Amino acid sequence: MSQSLSTPQGGAAQPRGKSAVTREPPGNPVRFLDMKSLKVLVFLACIAWIAHFFYFRHFGLYEDDYAHIAPAMGWDLAALLRHARVFVTWPQGRPIHFFLPRLFSFIGAGLGGLHTVYVIGFIIVTLNAFLFYILMERTIRSEVLALTGALAFCLFPADTTHTLLTHALTLQTSLMFLLIASLCYLSGKRKISYLVALGALLTYESPFMVFFGIPLLKDKWDRSLVREYIGHAVILSGIILGVVGIRMFTGDERLMMMRRTDIFLVPVKILASVVIGPFASLLLFFYRPARTISHWNTGIALVFVMCLGVFLWQYHRLRIDSIDERSDYPLSFHSKVFTLSGSLQAPIYYAGVAKLFLAGIMMLCLAYVVSFTYFPPIATFGRGTGVHLAAAFGGSIIFACLCSLFLSMANAYGLKRYAIMVLSLYLSLVVGYRFSIQQDFKQSWQNQRWFWTSVIENSPDMTDGTVILVLRDDLPKTRYILTNSWADPFILEQIYQFPKHWKNPPRLLVVGNNWTQNVIMRGEEWTMPWVGYYEFTLQDSNVILLQMVDDKLIRADKPVIIRGRTLELKPMQPIANSISEKGALFRYLISDSGLRSR
Q1: Distance of alpha carbon 291 from its chain centroid, rounded?
Q2: How far apart are CA 13 and CA 1, in angstroms?
Q3: Helix axes of 265-294 and 416-458: crossing angle, nearest 10 degrees
Q4: Residues 242 and 101 reside in one and the same domain
Q5: Which structural domain, as residue segments, surrounds residue 494?
Q6: Selection from 594, 578, 555 nearest residue 498 by Cα
Q7: Is 517 exposed, middle or buried (0-12, 13-18, 19+ CB in 10 A)?
Q8: Calpha distance 165→149 (Å, rounded)
C-alpha cells in the first residue's frame, strides 16, 4: 500500500504578509537555553508552583508515600546502596520505579527534610512541561500551540496526582524518559532514544506505550514513514518481550498473577480501555472547570484572578498564527490499493495541525493499552487517576491543536481579544481546580497529624503483638487523597523504633463498624485479614479499640463479642517500659503540642 499526505514546499506556500506554521527540518538541534526558552521555563515553573506545590510546606506523606518515600528518609548511604539490589531482583518489573523515589527521598531528607523532597518533585513536574514545550516547538513552529500544549501537559485535568510525592518522583519521571526519548528520536538519535525509552518501561509502563506513536510527529507522512514505523514497532515489541522474559525469570508476582487470571479477557479489556480511557480523560477537560466553580472559595478566587491576568498578558504577547482565507493550498492524498487520489484545498496551517491532531489521537489511545490492570480506566479523583498519566501526552496535543485553530480563526476575523479571553478564563479555572486539590492535600496532612497524635496518646501501653483498631465512622475524610489508607498498619513502626526483640510490632487498622464479621477464628486464634495481602493476629487482652466521641478519639474498655465468644480488650496500664526511640516520622506526624514527655 502506498499512501502519502503532503503539503507544497517552498516559498510559494507562504501567504503574503502572514506567518504560517512551519516544521523544524529533521536533524536540526533543538535550542534549549536561548532567552526565549528560558522565559518559557520560568513561566511554566510559576504555573506549576501555583497549581501543584504552593502549599508544599503544609504537605506530608500520603498512601504509597509511606512505602516509597518514608523509609529512605531515615537511611544512611550504606542502606541506600543495599537497596540498589532492586536492579537484580526487579520487583514488579520496575527496578527504576523502586529505586528513584528512595534516592530522591534520601537526597531531599539530607538536604533539608520532607519539604526539600517536594522541591525535587516540583523540579521534575516543571521540567516535564518544559520538555513538552520543546517537543512541540520541534514538531511544529507555532508559539501558541507549543505554549498551550505545555500548559495543558502541566495542568492535565484528568490526573490529580501531581502533588503526590510517589507519583511526582516516579510516574512523572517515566514521562520524562518518554519526552527525552521522543526528542532524541526526532533529532535522528534513534539508538539513544530506544535506550532512554527503556527507562520509561522500567519505571512505569504506560508512557512507554505512547512511544509507539512518536514517528507520527514527523513532517512527512509517506511510504518511507510506513517502513520506518514498522521497524520502530518491531524494535519496541522486542524490548517489551525482552523485559517480559526477565520478569518471568525473576518470578515477578504481578506477571504471575496475570497468568492466573482469565487471559482471554485481556485483549477485550485492552480494546475497551483504548476507547473508554480517551473518552474519560477528554471529558474531564470540560468537567474540571465546572467543579472549580462549584467549590469556589477565597483561595481559589485569588489564584483565579492572578492567573487570569498572567494568561491574558502572556497570550497577548504571542504571535497568533494567521490564516489568509483568500489563499488555499493543495493537500493531496493517494492510495494504490484503493485507487484513490484527490486533493483538498486548505491552508498549510490547517494541514500541519490536522496531522498533529491525528497523531495526538493515536497517542492518546496508546496511553491506555496497558491500563487493563486498572480496568475500567475511569477514575476521576484520588490516587487511581494515575491511570491517566500517559494520556497527558496525546491529550495535551489534541487540546493544543484545537486551541491553536480557535485562536487563529478568531484572529482572522478580528476576534483575537475575545478568543484570548476565553482561553485565559479556561486555563485560570483549571489552575484553580489544581489549587483546590492542594487544599485537600493540606487538610489531609492536618488530619493525619491529629489522628496519629491521638492514637499515640490513647495507646501509651503498646507492647509486642498489640493491634489497634480504629472505627472508621466519623473520622475526618478528604476527597483527592486519603487520610487513612492501606499503609496505616505500617506507620507506627516508622513513628517509633520498637525493640528489635519484638516479633510482632504494634499495628493499626482502620475498620468499619461491622469489623467483627471479618474476623476469622482458627482454633483458639483470632485473625483479621487486611486488603487481601496480610493477616493480623488478635490476642486476648492485647487489642486496643478506638472510636470517635464528640470529635475525639476515645479508647473503649468493654469486651467485644465475636460470634458468641468474648474478646477482652487491652486494659489501660501504667507504662512499664516507655518506647523512647523515635523513628524518622515522629517529628512529622506527631503534633508539637502532644507527647512532649515521650
Answers
A1: 20
A2: 28
A3: 100
A4: yes
A5: 459-589
A6: 578
A7: exposed
A8: 24
Cell numbers for 508, please give them: 493499626
- Read off the C-alpha cell for 405: 485553530
Contacts (Cβ under 8 Å, ≥6 apart) of 203: 94, 96, 97, 100, 170, 171, 173, 174, 177
Same domain, residue pair 464 and 427: no
Distance CA 256, CA 328 (A): 58
Separation of CA 304 from chain center: 23
Q: Are residues 508 and 554 in the same domain?
A: yes
Residue 347 has pLDDT above 70, yes or no: no
Domain annotation covers residue 447: no
How far, in Å, CA of 530 to CA of 489, rounded? 9
pLDDT in tens, 490-519: 999 999 999 888 999 999 999 998 998 889
Q: Residue 594 domain-assigned?
A: no
Q: Which of 189, 69, 170 is nearest to 128 (CA)?
A: 170
Strand, coil or helix: 471: strand
Q: If 0-12 CB within 10 Å is exposed, 13-18 middle and 19+ buried, where does residue 426 land?
A: middle
**Is residue 311 assigned to a domain?**
yes
386-402 pLDDT tens trace = 999 999 999 999 999 99
Last-in-domain residue among 412, 441, 470: 441
Q: Are residues 189 and 236 in the same domain?
A: yes
Write down the pLDDT at residue 93: 87
Over 90: is that where the pLDDT of 304 sits? Answer: yes
Give dist(CA 237, CA 17) in Å, integer: 47
Across 432-443, average pLDDT:
96
Q: What is the mean pLDDT of the chain?
A: 86
- Counting the structural domains of the chain, the total is 2
- At 502, list the grid cell: 519484638
Q: Are residues 270 and 389 in the same domain?
A: yes
Annotate 149-168 with b (16+ C-beta within 10 A) or e (fewer): bbbbbbbbbbbbbbbbbbbb
CA distances from 137 to 131, 148, 198, 338, 352 (A): 10, 11, 24, 35, 13
Residue 236 sits in the same domain as residue 308: yes
What is the structure's pLDDT at 5?
A: 40
| 400 and 541 assigned to the same domain | no
pLDDT at 322: 59
Amino acid at 524: E
Three cell numbers written together for 537: 493476629
> Which among 286, 339, 251 has a CA at the least distance from the CA of 158?
286
Domain boundary among 441, 471, 489: 441
Mean pLDDT of 44-63: 97
pLDDT band at 593 (very low <50, low <70, confident <90, very high): low
* 24 has pLDDT over 90: no
386: CB partners within 8 A, 6+ apart? 159, 161, 167, 171
* Phi, psi (deg, nearest 5) at residue 155: -100, 5
Whether residue 446 lies inside any domain: the answer is no
State the cell numbers at 533. 495481602
My answer on whether 359 and 387 are in the same domain is yes
Report DSSP letters for 254-281, one per residue: HHHHHHHS-TTHHHHHHHHHHHHHHHHH
pTM of the model: 0.88
Determine the pLDDT at residue 146. 94
pLDDT at 201 > cutoff 70: yes
Determine the longest span between alpha carbons in the chain, in angstroms: 91
